[in-house]
Amino acid sequence: xxxxxxxxxxxxxxxxxxxxxxxxxxxxxxxxxxxxxxxxxxxxxxxxxxxxxxxxxxxxxxxxxxxxxxxxxxxxxxxxxxxxxxxxxxxxxxxxxxxxxxxxxxxxxxxxxxxxxxxxxxxxxxxxxxxxxxxxxxxxxxxxxxxxxxxxxxxxxxxxxxxxxxxxxxxxxxxxxxxxxxxxxxxxxxxxxxxxxxxxxxxxxxxxxxxxxxxxxxxxxxxxxxxxxxxxxxxxxxxxxxxxxxxxxxxxxxxxxxxxxxxxxxxxxxxxxxxxxxxxxxxxxxxxxxxxxxxxxxxxxxxxxxxxxxxxxxxxxx
Length: 318
Fold this sequence. Notes:
This is RNA methyltransferase. Keywords: 4Fe-4S, Cytoplasm, Disulfide bond, Iron, Iron-sulfur, Metal-binding, Methyltransferase, S-adenosyl-L-methionine, Transferase. Its cofactor is [4Fe-4S] cluster. The chain is an alpha/beta fold. It is built from ten helices and twelve strands. The longest helix has 18 residues, at about 95-115. The termini are far apart.
């Protein structure tokens, strides 16, 4: 069985965690349906649930640590213009056990195939796969508690990051219930352009999002803003100025992400020159800025590319 005590012990997960997993639901384990290794050693996994639903996880080796990109839903209702998962609609929520089982499978593969033996063990989890974690927050929080419990999977809370499209009314609850890090997918410097590519902005404006962060961010913590860069859409020097003004006053850093091929052909990655100019301009305002390079793009495992199969659409939650 997937949650067999001996198999878990081989991953360094003890008896207490075995009982906790069984308590979640012993019938929610996943199986590997497809493996797609990338030229850059990233591994995209298609996982099949007991009901036949397909989700994807991505194992990303790095020099300091290996990262697993975890899914929280089957599909997604948020319909961001640049995201393949958003085209699927929402089929159903993942249970906490199904979220945790993605980690179990990845750990077993990393150990069996040596991906974590290159001086980079699997220590980093990012909820940036399929789905909007805040639309399934209860199950996501259950999973995080088990994944960070020193009696179980023992991930450091600072090495677990949950990404949201900006569901502002869930931010306070997230910080109250979880010690994990928060990433906010921003992707535009003003409401008009953000709403054009991210329908969530019609419900939660950028001002409302910033107010929720300013009110809820715990002392000593920082928020990570993710900013996907699109050629001649949000990558001008003036856009960097607007972004710097928006994040001013918040303890934060910004990850700039050149866009990957996605569902909208009009949204293209910027040239290297425009990327460098944007980053330099933003950094010049004193904003801590990093560039996230694509990983797994050749196997459809990069940011915005995860998609299983077509599913019935459901409306986005209010």
